[in-house]
Each structure stands twice: as C-alpha cells, then as structure tokens.
Amino acid sequence: MNDFSDDILVAASRRGDKSAYALLIKRHYRHVFAVCLGVLANVDDAEDIAQDAMLKGFLKIKKLRESEQFGQWILRVSKNLCIDFLRRKKYARVFRAKQALQRRQTTNENHDLQQAIGRLSQEFRLPLVMYYFDNKSAKAIAEKLKISHSGVCQRIRAARKQLHKLLTEGVHNEQ
Amino acid sequence: MSSNCDEMRDQIADFITGILPEKEAQALQQHLSECPACKDYAQTLEKEEQLLTGFFAKFDATMTSREDEAISVINGFDTSGQASVIPAGKTILKSFLIRHAAVAVVIVLVALYFVITLSWISQINECIRLSL
C-alpha cells in the first residue's frame, strides 16, 4: 500500500479508510509541519495546528475534487488554519510585543538561531523553513507555494541575509 | 573590498544556501579566491548554514513520532457520528410528499392573508360609507 499514489489513497480515505489516510499523513505531515512552523514560528503551536490540519483534511476529504492535488490542498488547509489561529488569538500582536520586550531585555540572546528565525518576517520565514525541510529544493517549494522559482530564490536570499544580520547583530551586541 | 563585492554578496548568500546556478558559482569561486573580505563573509555564512542545517535536522529525528501522534489523533476520532449530524430541517424536507405539502401550506397561508386583508379593507370602507 506504501507505493500507492495519492489519488488512490485519497479515494480510500473518502470511504473512511483510516489506514490509507495514515499513509497520506506519513507522506505529507513533514511539509504540513514545515508550513505551520514557517507561519507560526513556534514549535508547539506548529505541532498542534499541523495535527488539526491533518484531522480537518480527513474530515473534509470528500470536498477535495482533484485527488492527485492532495499535497497542495492539505498545505492550503494548514496555512489557513495557521492564519485563523493567529487571528483568533491575536497572536501576532502579543508575539511582536513579546519580541520587542525580549530585544530590549536580553540582547545577549539575539544570537540564538531559533529567536532569529522567529524574528524574520513571515513572507521570508515560510520559504526558508520549507527550503530546509524540503531537502533544499527551491523548485519543490515554488510548486507548493504556487510562486515562481525566482520568487522563491529571492525570498530565501532575503531571509538568509536578514538572518545573517540578526545573528551578527547579536554577536556585536555581546562584544 | 571593491564595489564589485557588494554585488557579490547576493551571489555568496545564494551560493552558500545552494540556490546559485552552476555557471555563476564558478565565476564566484574565482572572485572568492582573490578577495579576502568576501571569503570571510562566505565563511561566516557557511558557519550559519551549518547551524541552520543542524537546527532543522533536529526535527527529522522527531518527525516519525510527530507523524504517529497525528495518526493516533485520526484513529481516536470517531467518524461514525459524522453522518448522523444532519440538520433536522434537511432530514424532514428530504421526503417528496412532505416537501410538496410544505409548499402547499405556504401557498394557502399566503392566500388566506390576502383574503383576510381584503375583507378588512372592505369592512373599513363600509364603515366610512355608513358614517358619511
């Protein structure tokens, strides 16, 4: 069953076959998690929303018209759930305030990579996180995010340079 | 550091990240062998690249357990109740006869409304006529 294509597994999942859907989870969870981490910049929240997305995917799978598009569809579902989550919890505002406070209080933590990734803008963070989760394939990300290859490369470059700035800023502050 | 170096910084970032086309990578390597400032920059980015790769590789180690957890959420979810949650209105109106009977009742009620309104108007007219 492992070799079955997505559309066969989707058809079985539509009939309520949980073992078929488990294989879809094995195949796509990694990318769903990457999207959630890229949008939310928080590992625990990303895990919760990724699980919610997979559950929602199972419950709404009958609405998916093109079975072979499951990969892109589930990424859309997860991204929408992340946006809802941010809106519902007013997370963005709280998060930014927390970050500003952290910047003022603990400049010596600026070098921390996780914090620096969290401080990137979502526009740059999402392709960057997906890039490292997706075996460094800019082409695969372009397909998943439905943007051009050069667009993905531009955002990764911008993210990488911004990250360098944030990390070196931390080192200079320590000195 | 020459003005050319500023232009090279984008290429260095792309090169270290792995998105620079092969052709441009060769020209860049030539520049790196001649420019100590850009070489330093490239080495710093290379160290950050290793940090980044290591950071995301940590998730690989736990990905299987994360997937299994998501699968257990699906397995623990009772989907049998899903089908029964159909709004009562939709269930009742599913029957052909009941649907048509509901339409007939609505038509009769509308007709009654008009008859009563017309009789009221005629009674009011009658009262006005008598008072005059």
Whole-number radius of gyration of chain A?
Answer: 18 Å
Our count of domains of chain B comes out at 2
Count of DSSP helices of chain B?
6
Succession of helices and strands of chain A:
HHHHHHHHH
Q: Largest interface, with Cβ-Cβ < 8 Å?
A: A-B, 34 and 29 residues
Segments of chain A where pLDDT lies below 50 for 5+ residues?
A: 104-110
Silhouette of chain B: elongated
Distance between the termini of chain B: 109 Å
How many E strands of chain B? 0
Helix proportion of residues of chain B, in percent?
Answer: over 70%
Major sheet of chain B, described briefly? none
How much is the average pLDDT of chain A?
84
List low-pLDDT spans of chain B: 83-92
| Radius of gyration computed on alpha carbons of chain B | 40 Å
Based on secondary structure, the structural category of chain B is: mainly alpha
Question: What is the helix/strand order of chain B?
Answer: HHHHHH
Describe the structure in your own words:
The complex is a heterodimer of chains A (175) and B (132). With 175 residues, chain A is mostly helical. Chain A has two domains: 1-89, Orthogonal Bundle (Rna Polymerase Sigma Factor, Chain: A); 106-175, Orthogonal Bundle (Arc Repressor Mutant, subunit A), CATH 1.10.10. Helices cover 78% and strands 0% of the residues of chain A. Chain A has helices at residues 6-14, 18-40, 43-59, 70-88, 91-105, 113-119, 122-133, 138-145, 149-174. Chain A is globular. The N and C termini of chain A lie far apart (57 Å). Residues 104-110 of chain A have low confidence and may be disordered. Chain B has 132 residues and is mainly alpha-helical. Chain B starts with a helix and ends with a helix. In chain B, helix 1 (3-17) packs parallel to helix 3 and helix 2 packs across helix 3 (36-76). Chain B folds into two domains: 3-84; 88-131. The model of chain B is unreliable at 83-92 (pLDDT under 50). Helix content of chain B is 87%, strand content 0%. Chain B is built from six helices and no strands. The A-B interface holds A 16, 18, 21-22, 25-26, 29-30, 33, 47, 50-51, 54-55, 58-59, 113-114, 117, 129, 131-133, 136, 138, 153, 156-157, 160-161, 163-164, 167-168 and B 9-10, 13-14, 16-19, 44-45, 48, 51-53, 55-56, 59, 63, 66-67, 69-71, 73-75, 77, 79, 82.
